[in-house]
UniProtKB/TrEMBL annotation:
It comes from Olea europaea subsp. europaea. Belongs to the FMO family. One of its GO terms (biological process) is auxin biosynthetic process. It catalyses: indole-3-pyruvate + NADPH + O2 + H(+) = (indol-3-yl)acetate + CO2 + NADP(+) + H2O. One of its GO terms (molecular function) is indole-3-pyruvate monooxygenase activity. Its EC number is 1.-.-.-. PANTHER family: FLAVIN-BINDING MONOOXYGENASE-LIKE PROTEIN (AFU_ORTHOLOGUE AFUA_4G09220), INDOLE-3-PYRUVATE MONOOXYGENASE YUCCA6. The lineage of its organism: Eukaryota, Viridiplantae, Streptophyta, Embryophyta, Tracheophyta. Keywords: Auxin biosynthesis, FAD, Flavoprotein, Monooxygenase, NADP, Oxidoreductase. Its cofactor is FAD. Pfam families: FMO-like (PF00743). This is Flavin-containing monooxygenase.
Amino acid sequence: MDCSREIEGKSVHDPYCNWPNNKIQRSQRCVWIPGPVIVGAGPSGLAVAACLKEKGLPSLVLERSNCIASLWQLKTYNRLRLHLPKQFCELPLMSFPLEFPTYPTKQQFIHYLESYAKRFDIRPVFNQTVLCAEYDQNLGFWRVRAAGLKDEECEYVCRRLIVATGENAAEVVPQIEGMEEFGGTIMHTSKYKSGEVFEGKKILVVGCGNSGMEVCLDLCNNNASPSLVVRDTVHILPQEMLGRSTFGLSMWLLKWLPIRLVDRFLLVLSWLILGDTGRYGLNRPRVGPLELKNLSGKTPVLDVGTLAKIKSGDITVFQSIKRFRRQSVEFVDGKSENFDAIVLATGYKSSVPSWLKEREMFSEKDGLPKRPFPNGWKGECGLYAVGFTKRGLLGASMDAKNIAQDIETCWKADAKHFSATFNKLM
């Protein structure tokens, strides 16, 4: 349905309208969407769309890229596997194939997501970059303005908006003195695919999270000479303990023990299996790994072989960078070293504040819901968030189920209200 004339007439006198010239541009299409608009076709967006579809509720998924799960398909390195066992990474209503390994590869996970979209007939509108989304108090609807490949704009009007762009929508690139002077390549891990192109070269990886550690291992396996910048304290845990995944063991223990006791248990086992990581420049935080995850969202590193390379000297650990120079990097401890390239494993951040014109549900500082888990999925005026729990795919699945249940309840209430109103008119 084309509703641009009706909205244009109302928006002329609308004090809340921030569009150019305070009205809809003539060249901009306006489309009414009867169900929720979901922004983002990653795992979170697919999960909530599937949960809605299972309840018989329609939705429209908008995606800025040309494929689903664009972060996984376009911005991850080739050797990537799920860090957690597959049973903790399943989306609602569909399990992984039985023949998949415990830790599926990148390509296997993408295949799973594509099969998931096909099974629930989820058809995102691709190449739609959301420029602005704002709740129109006068109309009582959300107005979502998006631009296509040729900068053709379309405004989607809906009663409910689901933000599914996630915690990893935009790369974090630190500004370090002298970066513009450095003569080699500087890239974010979103551009890194394989260490093959760096064979025989000295590479500095900045950041010691799971990505930074795995990139270093990949570089080693491709005959490069990697070094690792450890800017902060970090918890390194074995991927498996006592024959079980560390994550699965932790979840089981948390059913019976307080989090601090579980943390102590994990740290004792880690020390027995990995030794004292502090001897190699990898000092642990004072707060335990699970408690730190709850407090700050910082994920412990699950070691897949990088620590052995650090112990053997194949990977050198450096402290924070002081500044870049033409051919070298100077560190805060006064050391200086030449490198051919820099890989920034500095993570991602939410991009929500750049396009969502709302200040109650999402924080402008970090783009995450202000209300802590598990209550950050619902806002006011039909606004929802999925995939911002800092608990991975498990948290996204919980959000998706809650959102679908809430919208179903609202949908039935709306239908009942409409029916009563219609009967009165008749």
